[in-house]
Every structure is written in C-alpha cells, then in structure tokens.
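Hi, here's the filled form for the chain we discussed.

Project: internal
Contact: R.S.
Residues: 250
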Amino acid sequence: MRQWTHAEYTDAAGREIERMADVVAKQDMSVPVPTCPGWDVGALVAHTGGVHRWAAAMVRDLAERRYDREAMDLGVPEDRAGYAAWLREGGPILVEALRAQDPAAPVWVWGGDRHVRWWSRRQLHETAVHRVDAEIALGMAPEIGEHEGADGVEEFLDNLPYARWRPRIRELTGEGETISLQSDSGAGWVITLNPDGFSYERSQQPGTVTVRAASSGDLMLLAWNRRRSGDYSVEGDASLLTWWLERACV
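And the returned structure, exactly as it came back:
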C-alpha cells in the first residue's frame, strides 16, 4: 500500500475540495441528502466548508483545545447560491494552514495521533466522504480512487475508537470473531473483535464474515455506511457484518 506524507495528504485534500465544489456548483441546495438524514445539499456544504475553516484555524494556532465551531464566524453566505464558491474558497485556507506547520507539531485532534499530520489526513477523507454524499444526493455515481480508498479504510479504523460521541462504538467487542474486508486490487484487512475492543491488520485471510469488493474505494464506502452491504459479495456470517455496521457508524 502507498505510504502518504503530510504534504501529499494536504495536496489531495485541496483537490477533493475542488472536486466537491465542482459537484455542487449550480445545483439545487434544497435536495435532500439520504446518507445524512435531515440534511439537504446546502446543509452538507455549509458543514463541510465550516469544518475546513475550523480545522485551518486550529492548525494555524496549534490549538491546545478544541475550538467551538458553532461560535466561530465561518463566513457562510446568506444566499445559498454562493455556497459552492464559498466551499471552493476554503480550500486554499486549509491547505495554506497545513503547509505552514511542521506535521509533527502537537495540536488538538479528536483522534489518537495528536499532531498536525492527523488533520491533513482527516480532511482528505472528511471531504471525500461528503463529496460522495453530494454525488449520491444529486444522482451521480460516486468513485474513490484505489490509493485514497485503501488509506481511507485504515483512517476510519484508526479513528473509530476515538469517536466518543457515538456510544455504541463501545459495543464493538467480542470473543475473537473476525470481519474480513477484501478488494480485488489485492488490498485487504481483517478486523478482530476482542473482549476489550477491536484491532485490525492488513491481511487477505477470510473471516467469520468476509466482504469482497472491486476496489478499496468500494470498501471505504461500506466502512462509512455510504453503500449498503447488499451491494457486495458477502461470505459467512452476514449478521455479524450487519451488527458491525450498526455500531461502527460515525
């Protein structure tokens, strides 16, 4: 698998922001987003562009605490017709903040790697997932590249134990049952449910339940609950996969 640098994550995040802005440009902002219940495209854009500016501020300041995003003036346009341009304008703000800092500099994060490099990786995948949300809402076929998808699966699994606002994540325990995620590209992971939580490793071994997909991007969409398990080839205990997906929901 490709090993990403902070600079590569940063550049890729910038490209994803451009891509999402292209997707939503001149679109109806009132279209519901089925993968984000209660949101329409406008709310999705406002959230994503706000996260970019919020993250940029904390990285720029090397914040030791979480900034209150709701209390920040993020410059969201009053007229939703300006949302796509505003989203696009947030790209350079985020990219410049990330480029200006040492990737190993400490900063507040909600995950485990409490350094600037966590934010470049997180913002790449944050934006990719929400770009997919917009594409699904607008009737487009979403795609995630192989390299981005493979890293996105691992980023999801790395951060999942820290998503403390989702209490059901604490239920992801077991007695050694395994969930195997396998791609036709050759990338694969096996998640093991332990009494005190879960672990994962890169492996092409089958599991108690095994999911097979064409690409790592497809597996990333499954991990983020952006595609239904019924769209995949599932071998073994399908109820275990359903159980996992119900709880591993960020």
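Let me know if anything looks off before we file it.
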